[in-house]
Amino acid sequence: MKPLIVANWKMNPTSLAETKRLFNSVKNGIKKIKKAEVVICPPFVYLSTFSQQYHRLVRGTVRLGGQDCFWEEKGAFTGEVSPAMLKNLGCEYVIIGHSERRRYFQETDEMINKKIKAALKVKLKPILCVGETEEERKNGKAEEILKRQIEKDLKEIESFNLIIAYEPVWAIGTGNSCGAGEAQNIKNFISGIIPSVKILYGGSVNSGNSKEYIKEAGFGGLLVGGASLDAEEFSKIIKSCG
Question: Any catalytic annotation for residue 72?
């Protein structure tokens, strides 16, 4: 099965022109790569630009994903984006429960659970992010935290047509990536909770360590943050995983 490489651009770039340049550079850099499936998750405001080209340029080369969604289909929810809207713009995936959403926007496991259910309802594939903080890791509570997040986030969900992304909070954007051995232990732990679900690794991924997570730790792919904003670096990451 092909590894799934997901680019989370977060709140970048700041202009449409720059976004187009980045997207085209990534697309051109990986157009000959057949051994990995690539998903780009740009800010919502740029999705319509890519969806206009979806069948002509995107489909078959890279897939589109949203960075978040709300749990209602429509209504008086100012500033929110529904799963149906993402689906209509050509998205196949949506990131849910990212640690930045949990931290800065106080998203709870109950809210995340509702978002996953809403995404599945319109046949989007959720990428559920889970991970422990540095303090929780030091106190030996990583597995306890992950088990609680997974059980609450997937409460009353019978279909596991989703992906889990293990993103240790202490590794995101810090340059302190999780070692392949430690990451593999966590992957095996998660697999014990929900078997047969693809598990990605995320957290300071770069072209120097990406291969370790796929070839050594056995992850089914990667969720890439900062490095995905450098088209050349991101292409190297994808090539290293094929």
Answer: no
